[in-house]
């Protein structure tokens, strides 16, 4: 396995998803897997798909970074266990993303546009780094023009945590039953809009996401995809 460097155009978009996989996410692990697979499937026949690279990084008391792959090929494996070293993981993921951006630029001669999204349902626990170190890592990404996004999942954490760390875009997903819809539909829509936009969406990354009043039910798109779940086992 290795990172991807062959793209179909010079307009390259990179997404790093840093997803909490600590023990508190255990009851939601199936939703995360279904949501990520739905996200992946949603890019079939998307015109810019061959110029989009995605890495799924999990974190608990440590971090596990997946290779950057074309959006149709990235690894959606997800399992849970451990505590929540979120500050440590943010710093490591930020460096991993910067290293990949540098290598893409050197190999292609193009400067890619990048987004780092962090999803967590809990505060720091048994961390190996400090809050200030995570703030510095996010600030460096922001100054480099990288879009930083924080998703507060569940009711044990809010978007205020992400704002305190300096993320330019934050959102609350309190209803745990909507996680499949959030990952497979809302996140997909925002990433597609970013990929087709002439400039980074920044603070407006989720400006067209489904609002809270609609979050108690899956969208029709999600429901139809989940009813025909034969594709899930093929990924």
Tally of individual helices: 6
Could you list the spans in which at least 5 consecutive residues all have pLDDT below 50?
210-227, 230-235
**Averaged pLDDT, please?**
90
SSE sequence, one letter per element = EHEEEHEHEHEHH
Oligomer: single chain
Largest sheet: 7 strands, mixed
Give helix % range: 25-40%
Alpha-beta content class: alpha/beta
Share in β-strands: 15-25%
Cα-to-Cα separation, first versus last residue: 16 Å
Mass-distribution shape: globular
Query: What Rg, in angstroms, do the CA atoms define?
Result: 16 Å
Total beta strands? 7
Description:
- The protein is of the alpha/beta class and 235 residues long.
- The protein has six helices and seven strands.
- Strands 1, 2, 3, 4, 5, 6 and 7 form a seven-stranded mixed β-sheet that branches.
- Helix 4 links the parallel strand 6 and strand 7.
- Helix 1 runs parallel beside helix 5 and helix 2 runs parallel beside helix 3.
- The longest helix is centred in the middle third of the chain and has 23 residues.
- The radius of gyration is 16 Å and the shape is globular.
- The relative contact order is 0.17.
């Amino acid at each position: 396995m290795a990172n991807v460097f062959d793209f179909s155009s010079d307009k390259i978009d990179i997404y790093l998803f840093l997803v909490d996989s600590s023990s508190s996410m255990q009851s939601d692990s199936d939703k995360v897997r279904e949501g990520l697979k739905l996200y992946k499937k949603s890019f079939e026949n998307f015109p810019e798909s061959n110029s989009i690279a995605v890495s799924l990084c999990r974190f608990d008391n440590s971090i596990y970074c997946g290779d950057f792959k074309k959006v149709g090929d990235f690894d959606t494996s997800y399992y849970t266990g451990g505590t929540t070293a979120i500050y440590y993981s943010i710093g490591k993921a930020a460096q991993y993303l910067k290293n990949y951006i540098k290598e893409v630029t050197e190999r292609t001669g193009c400067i890619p546009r990048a987004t780092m999204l962090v999803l967590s349902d809990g505060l720091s626990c048994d961390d190996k780094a400090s809050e200030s170190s995570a703030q510095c890592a996010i600030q460096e990404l922001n100054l480099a023009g990288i879009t930083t996004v924080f998703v507060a999942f569940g009711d044990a954490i809010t978007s205020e945590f992400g704002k305190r760390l300096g993320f330019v875009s934050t959102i609350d997903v309190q209803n745990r039953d909507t996680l499949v819809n959030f990952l497979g539909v809302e996140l997909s829509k925002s990433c597609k809009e970013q990929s087709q936009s002439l400039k980074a969406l920044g603070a407006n990354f989720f400006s067209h996401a489904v609002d809270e009043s609609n979050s108690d039910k899956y969208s029709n798109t999600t429901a139809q995809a989940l009813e025909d779940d034969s594709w899930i086992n093929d990924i």
